[in-house]
Structure formats: structure tokens, C-alpha cells
Amino acid sequence: MASKRPLLIPSPRTPNSQDLPSIPLYSDLVNPQSQSANFKSFSPMDSNGNNPIENSPIPPNSTTLYSASQRSISSILSANSGGNSVREVNFSDVGTKPVRYGSRGTESEAFSMSQKEINDEDARLIYINDPGKTNERFEFSGNSIKTAKYSILTFLPRNLFEQFHRVAYIYFLVIAILNQLPQLAVFGRGASILPLAFVLLVTAVKDAYEDFRRHRSDRIENNRLAWVLANDQFQQKKWKDIRVGEILKISANDTLPCDIVLLSTSDPTGVAYVQTINLDGESNLKTRYAKQETLSKLPEKEKITGLIKCEKPNRNIYGFQANMEIDGKRVSLGPSNIILRGCELKNTASAIGVAVYAGRETKAMLNNSGAPSKRSRLETRMNREIIYLSVFLIALCTVVSACAAVWLRRHRDELDYLPYYRKKDFSEGKEDSYNYYGWGMEIFFTFLMSVIVFQIMIPISLYISMELVRVGQAYFMIRDSRLYDEASNSKFQCRALNINEDLGQITYVFSDKTGTLTENKMEFQCASIWGVDYSGRKANLQGEQLGYSVQVDGQVLRPKMKVKVDPELLLLSRSGKDTQEGKHVHDFFLALAACNTIVPLVTDTSDPAVRLVDYQGESPDEQALAYAAAAYGFMLIERTSGHIIIDVQGERTRFNVLGLHEFDSDRKRMSVILGFPDKSVKVFVKGADTSMLSVIDKSLNLNIIRATEAHLQMYSTIGLRTLVIGMRELNSSEFEQWHFSFEAASTSLIGRAALLRKVASNIEKNLSILGASGIEDKLQQGVPEAIESLRMAGMKVWVLTGDKQETAISIGYSSKLLTSKMTQIIINSGSRESCRRSLEDAMVMSKKLMTVSGVTHDTGRSSGGAATLALIIDGTSLVYILDSELEEQLFQLASKCSVVLCCRVAPLQKAGIVALIKNRTDDMTLAIGDGANDVSMIQMADVGIGISGQEGRQAVMASDFAMGQFRFLVPLLLVHGHWNYQRMGYMILYNFYRNAVFVFVLFWYVLFTCFSLTTAITEWSSMLYSIIYTSLPTIVVGILDKDLSRRTLLNYPQLYGSGHRHESYNLKLFWVTMMDTVWQSAVIFFVPLFAYWKSPIDGSSIGDLWTLAVVILVNLHLAMDVMRWTWITHAAIWGSIIATCICVLVIDAIPSLPGYWAIFHIGKTRLFWLCLLGILIAGLIPRFVVKFLNQYYNPRDIHIAREAEKFGNLRELGGAEIEMNPILDPSRETTR
């Protein structure tokens, strides 16, 4: 395995704390005059022109040049320098304030804990190396974790409580309880409870197994060992026994057992590399720092004492606010000083820290809530039909009760002699009433008994069947090799099992751009330097993949990634700073090499003399720019906590890092302050053009600025991501002023993040422009074809991106999202009133275009107006539109457009756009993205899909489904989504049908038995009907059946429209199915009734005939609808019929049960088999005829495609899509 060694570490540092005035514990930081005399001590130049930093007696390899206590702690780390802050996630307490999607300023919510003063009420006090005193006042959480839900004692009551949240289960429980009453006992008491007990048992076993795995995982985690300081030496201790306040020692590749504040590391600079893949999914190394005040302290040799006052536990993994009092000083602590539970220590021999949060109070555990639960739209619609069935059940029971009341009135004088209504009892020697409770109570009891007898009208087995079918569907989706991405070695993941069928009904697709439509693998393409465009035109002909290399300690170091260079620009970069043009090129590439947070790692190759430098960075943009600088001779080869070394055209140059302001989503830029060997100090800034052009000094070189703006426009037009580079030289007083402001801000107790941003903004101004860069983010393979297929399937694709409008439009054209035939409506407004006018004008324009296209549509030359409009709107406009009265106008306009492109949008605005559609229509929404800035959008949509991309796995962890490429969306929706929806819709209707048939047979029998609620079908057959007799075939068909082949569904995306039209499950189908149910039940009951009308056969024998007839008929009904037969389908359907026959034989062979030997008596007669055959023919003929007439005279798209598949003439159907139903044509819309 290639070894990796860290060369450099990004860390903003200020001059040595020994040269700086230390700030007293309670010093007044507001009055700058009080310390003005001391400022000269940290001026970059003394009175003699010497730089105390460069002339420091400390050797270059020393690590005390810069104090860790003065490091910039930007409010939030960012992984995207292009405007998309992948960290902009709100972790404030949900529910305290309504989320405002239109607001750009989410700071008050996202950083609520870091914006307010930490007082004793809002803070926890941690005494370093004194866990007893730390936990004396407040008993903080221990480090034992528990992710399991149940214990041995709580499992049964809690699991049953959770299961009975389903109202249907309560219904069946009430039925079972009623059947236990002597007055209402229709079935045996054991048999009546069996179906519910079976369903509860299956679910409980599944839950118990899942919880057992969680218990096992918790036990392994809690019993892991860590080194904890005890009795002045580090001893091993179980994780679960660690307490807040204890000092821990972490070794390389160890996982952090709790959240610790870093005190020291094996690196003399106090730097630690950590990998947070277990926390946020990102594999890139990140740097954490120990404070200068604790670096030299060795816990084993000297006792460390101090007090940490930090915020209470919260979910914000990117923020931390605390202060540490040690040796009479107060130093500030921020996100860069804490390592969270679950992180791994990498490329650092050891690290020592103090536990501040443990167990369930760690940030990792507080975020361990998972994605929000979503409910299938089909299951929601199913509840409507269950209500109808409930009403129907009540109606049947009412009819039986009313008829029983009439019958009792007519025969009230005969009740003494009837076996079921004996009114007199002479057993005790005196006349007494017996088994009769009066006319009114008898009617009431009849109603309740009817509910018990007809209970399976509500199918209890449907819920467990749906769960099993979804598991099977998920299995085949995961195993689909066409959803496997070889590049990232990522398989399809099904993280939510309850919404599989929703994939077949998607109308709106909301997609991120960077990393979702594009690869998020940035490649430097061109640059504009000092107004000259080096766009690489010559590189297309003469360019070469150049790999710059340097000699270090006898070994050749080369960048891991090669970059295509422009020969003219390469020549200028090698010419040095002798010419004015060469100086500008030098400064430009120096800025690219220095202004970043790149961590260079060296990896071995097969050649021992050659090693590769791998630039590890949180942003692909930064990596691309660093590799580009290296290709042009500015190779970053080392970074320590206080300096960087850049090989400039073969000459190693050391630059002192005097300060670093990292990128944040408010400023949209980052800056670095460098001390040069010639004693000068310069600040280099790079960022988005919108933020950079506002801080460029336009009084200097106005022509250069205008030329650069023109080049930026050109780069954006061809789809490149752009950054602007600027710099200026700082004099002594400017540096002193910055340093004091930075010190005051970094130690502030209130609003530290805002103060640091203000300090950064003050230094990042009056810049001289150096140029701009153009980076290409290539489209993923198959994206244009995928978008075209989705649109042909009737889906509207919206792209929500943080990129510039020009870049987004260019990508829109290259991905075929936008076409030249579309009319673009562009809204870029800076005020609410301007947005209102723009929306009104756009509505007028859209109505005119719709009118014109409508006329064209009548002539048959157009598909309608919706395909001609594209709305392009920016984030600034959305600030004024979302969460205002303008939302409705935006919705009306957007609904008329087939494409919507939102540019420069913040993460919460993405969620707001999804909510705009979701809250106003019944259409299904899908959101797909790859970064943390897509999480809110993914969780807002009905279906959320995460891409396993370059920006970590935050989107994957918050998603319902995850995959490697955007193009996989086509087979996922058009194939698996269609299959899942068709199967689940049919399975629900079939469950309603098969149970209703059985109930109606019982109902007909009641009408012929004086409404006494006796049944000819044995109680065990009644109970086993939904469990054994008919359950397995519907589950197998729900998992395996395919109405159309994968090839057909992909070749004809219009077939996906069946989900939009609800063809597989709708109210019309429900009522048609119920009508068929009534007919089939009548045939099943009356054919044997009339055949055996005057025969001596008993009720048990004819009951067995009805049982077999029902089971065989419903299974043949299912067989008629199977599209793809497999051996499993054959085994399930015919095996269920055989199993039913065996069960009936066994039940009738038990002497203690009613109907002993009945099936053997009736089965010997020829009439039995004739009745069975007649029932099957008469029951299925009407269904067969209706299906034939419907498919022949009113065929749907699926019927046409199926016939074409059957007869093998798909190739001849070149114009098949012309004949298919218009996807959104209301005239073809089925009743929902």
C-alpha cells in the first residue's frame, strides 16, 4: 500500500505569542488606545526595515513561530469555493421559529449557539483532568451509548404500542375481544385471535432481530478501549466508563470515543489530521489544532489544570463555542479545536485532549436521528378505499340486523321451540328464560356478531403483505447491475422501504447541478490574467498534458494530476518577473498555489525514485487550481502550521502564513496574508465574481477590470465555473490594525463569527485585480439522454444550483434541458416590487404563447404550450418571492413551464422551491443531489435521492435512495418505478377483492339461515383464508410480475405516464373490482345451493365446497392477470391451491372439530366436481369478456406495448410514440 505522509497543513497563524502582548483574562478589548504602545512589537517590519518574523532566531523547522491561539475560526468551514456552501445546514432547534426559505440570512438560526454570550446558565463547566469536580454540580451524561429501542422488559409493551398505531390493528383487536364474549362467540376463541396474533408476531420478530443487532453493535462500541489519564499515567478504559473532564490519548488510526478539545499532539505545531467519514461522510482529511498555551504540557509529567466553559450540547457539527482558562489566561476555542466522536486520527502519531461531551450528548449521537419518515402516496390513497370498505361492512351488518329484527318480530311466538332462541328453561324445576336477551339486545348482538363474521372485509394481511413485497422489490433494485457505478464502486441503496411505489408516479424532478448533473471533478481550462485571455485555444492543437516535477531529497515529486496547459501562458510563467506581463502571471499563479487550504500528501509509486503529491482539499475547485498552479511551475510542496513552501520554477521559496480567512457563504471568498522573503506582506483573495468585483479598486486599471468581466462572461457562457483573483500589499499600520481586530474578534464572547467576517471584509478591500480562472465541471455520462427520457416520460425537470446564471444556462443547453425552440423567461430582480412586475409580465407572455401554441396544437403540429417555456430565476429574486404573497404567482408561472432553472440559490431556498410545488399540487416530487447543501431539498421532496459523489455522503445519509450517477434515474423510475407501482396497485386491489369475495359468500349464507350468523365454512378455514390459502401468491406476484420488459420501458418513456394517470390503482378500478366481487361471490354461493337444494347434504360439506371454490377461483383470477410466469409464480399459485386442499382434508379429519369427515363424503360425488367446474367458468367468464373488450376497443399504452412485445414486432412500431396517450391530457385522466 502506498504510504502517505503529510507535507503541509493549512493553518492561519499570527506572530509568535512571545513577541506579542498577552491579553489579560479580563482585559478591556474595546479600547484600542490602552495597548497602542505595544502594537509595534508585532509589526511586520521594525524601524530598521527588518522583519522580526524572518529574522527570528528560531530555526525554520521549529514549530513555535505562530500561536495556535490566534488562528482564525471562521464561522463555518466550506467545501465549495464556487458559491455553494456545502456546510450551510441549520441545526437550530426545530420548532422554535418557522423556517423561512426565502431568507438568505440564516445566520441567526444556523449559528444561534455561537452568536450569544456563554454565561453560567447556558454553559457547562469542565475542569480539566478533574472529572469528579466536573460532575459534582451537574451529572453529565456518561459515555455509554444506546441506539437500541427496547430492553427485555420493555420490548413487549412498547412494540405492541407501536404496532397498534395502525388503526386497522385496533379494529381487529376489538373484533377478537368481542368474539371472547359468550353472547357474541361466533368462532372459537383461539381461532379468532390467530390472524392478528400472526401479523403481530411476524412484525415483532422482525423488530426484535433488528433491535438485537443494535444491542450487539452498542455492546461492541461501549466495550472498546481507550487510553485515559489516571494516577498520572495513561491506562486503558472502556469507552462506556469515560467521563467528561478526563484526559484521553488517541493514537493514529484510532476512532474518537467522545468529543474532545485538543490539548496537544505528536506534531510540535499542535496539528492533528482527522477523517470525518463516519460523521459526515467526507473522506478528505481535515486539520484540527491544539492551543499554543497547552502544546508543551505533558499530562504524565505535570498536572494540567484549567477550566473550559463551553456551550451546551447541540447538533451543530460544524460549530463550537468555548473559552479555556489556563495559567491565568483566557483563550478562545472554536470548531478547529474540537474533534468529534466517530472521527479517526490520521497521519498523526498521537493526540491528547479533554472530554467535553460524552455519550448521548456528543454531536454525533445528537445527529443520529436518521432521515424523516415518509409515507407512500399509494398507501395514503388506499386509506380512502379502506374507509369505503368499512362503510360497506357497516352497511352489511345493518342489513343483517334489520332483517333479523323483522324475522324476530314475525316469529316471536315460535321462539320457545326454535333451537337458537329457546325462551324457557325448565332444568332447575321452575320455568326460567334462557339464551334470549330481549328483542332490542338481540338486534344489537346480531350487529356485533355480524362485524365479527364479516371482519376480513378489512384485510389484515394486506399490511404485512405490502411490507414483504417492498422488501422483495428493494432486493431486486439493489441487485440490479445496471444501477451499479463502477467509477465510484457504489451500489444502489434502498434506505426507505415504504415508498418504492412512489418511484412510478414522479411528476417533478428537482436536481442539483454540481456533482449531480456534472462530475464535480474540476479541470482547469483557461485563465484571464491582467486583461489577457488565455483560453487554451492553442492548447487544443499544441497543448500537452504537462506534469511539473521537482527534486526533494534526491527524489522526484510530481503532482498526482496532470493538467493541459496553454503554451503561451506556460512560456510567460517561466520568463520570471522581469517583464510587467511576467510579473502579473507570477502573482496570479502564486495566488492559486497559496490561497487555499490544500493539504499535500505524498504517495509512493512503483518507481522508488518518483513520488506523487496528492493535494487533499475540501473543495474540488481548490484542488483543480492547485494542480493548475503546479503545472505552470508553482508547486505547493509543504505546509506547516506557520508557513508554506512553494517551488517556483525550480526555486523553493518559503512564505510565512500570517493569517487566513477561510471561505464562508456570506463573503463567498477566502484570503491569505503572506509574509514574503523580501519583508513585504501581501493579502491574496479569491472568490466568486459577484463578491470579488465589489471589493476590487475600480479606480485602478479600469480597462483591465472591464476586460476581465468580458472574459468572465465568455467563460460562463461556455459552462465554466469562474473565480476572480485579487491582491494588495499591506503596509505596517494596516497589518497592525488587522492583527488587533483579529485578536479582539477571535477572543470575543459575543458574535465571534460575525466579528471575524467583519475583520475579513475589512482586509479584503481595495484589491488590485490579478485575473480570473475558468474551471470545467464536465457533465456526467448519459445526462443529456437521461433528461430527454425523463421529459418524454412526462416529468418536469427543474435544476436548482448555486452557480452563475450564465454557467447554469450553458449547462442547461449541453444537457438538453434547454433547447433553441424554448422561449426563456428570465427573472433577475432586486426588490419585491420589481419581482412583482417581472412575474406579471411573464404571466402575460406565457398566456400569449399558450394561446398561440394552442392554435398550433389544434392543427396537430405542436404538443402544446407547456413544452415551449423555460423559466430562469436567480436566488436574489427568490428572496423576495418565497414566503410572500408572490409565491402563488411564481407557482402559476412555473406550472406553465416545462423547465425551471434556479441560479444562485441557497440550500433553504432549494427546499422552498420543492415546497412550492409539493404544497400546491398532488403531483409527486423527487429531489436528487450530492452535497450537504442538498439535504434540505432531499428531505422536503416526496422522494429523495442522494448521489455518492465528491462532496461527501451527507446527501446519501439523508436520502431515501442512493446511487452513483444521475443517469441511473432513468432505469430507476422508468423501469423499477413503473414495475413497483403497477405491482403494488394491483396487489392492493387484489387483496380487497379476495377478502370481499369471502365476506359476500358468508353474507349470502346468513340470508338463508334466519340471520343467525352461523357459518358453514369452518372457523379454521375462515382464519387461514388470508394467512395460508391466498397470501403467498399475491406476495410473489407483487415482487416478480412484470407487465412490460425493461427494454420496452426504456425505449418508450411515454409508458411511464400510466403512473401519472393512476391506471393501476384508482377509484374506478376499485368499484369495478367490487362489482366483480359481488358477481363471483354470488356464483360461488348459489350454484352449489341450487345444485344441492333438496339433497340430504349437511352444512359442513357444502361449506367445504364453498371454501375450495373461493380459493381456487381467486387464485385463477390472479393467474389470469399474471404477465410474466416464472417457476416461483407457478409454485406459489398452484401450491396454494394444493395447500388449501390439504388443510381442508386435515381439518375435516380431526374428530374434535365440527364437520368431521365432511369433505370425504361430498368429494366422492360427481356433482361436487361439476359444481366446482361450473363455478370457475361462470365466475371468470364476465371478467374475461370485460378484459377482452376493454383491451381491444379501448387499449391503453401498456396494452399496445404488451401486444407488440408478445408478437415481436416492436421494431416495426417506429411511430408508436405518436399513438400513445398524451401524458398530461386531461381527457385521458382516470378518476383518482
From TrEMBL:
Residues 126-192 form the P-type ATPase N-terminal domain. Mg(2+) binds at D512, T514, D930, D934. Residues 47-56 have a biased composition (Low complexity). Residues 30-46 have a biased composition (Polar residues). It comes from the Eukaryota. GO terms for molecular function: ATP binding; ATP hydrolysis activity; ATPase-coupled intramembrane lipid transporter activity; magnesium ion binding. The active site is at D512. The chain crosses the membrane at residues 191-209, 386-408, 443-464, 992-1017, 1023-1040, 1069-1093, 1099-1118, 1125-1147, 1167-1186. It catalyses: ATP + H2O + phospholipidSide 1 = ADP + phosphate + phospholipidSide 2. Its main location: membrane. Residues 956-1195 form the P-type ATPase C-terminal domain. The keyword Acyltransferase does not apply. Belongs to the cation transport ATPase (P-type) (TC 3.A.3) family. Type IV subfamily. Its cofactor is Mg(2+). This is Phospholipid-transporting ATPase. CDD domains: P-type_ATPase_APLT_Dnf-like. It is an enzyme of class 7 (translocase). One of its GO terms (cellular component) is plasma membrane. GO terms for biological process: phospholipid translocation. It is a multi-pass membrane protein. Residues 1-65 are annotated as: Disordered. Its EC number is 7.6.2.1. ATP binds at D512, K513, T514, E622, F663, K686, R721, T801, G802, D803, R904, K910, N933, D934.
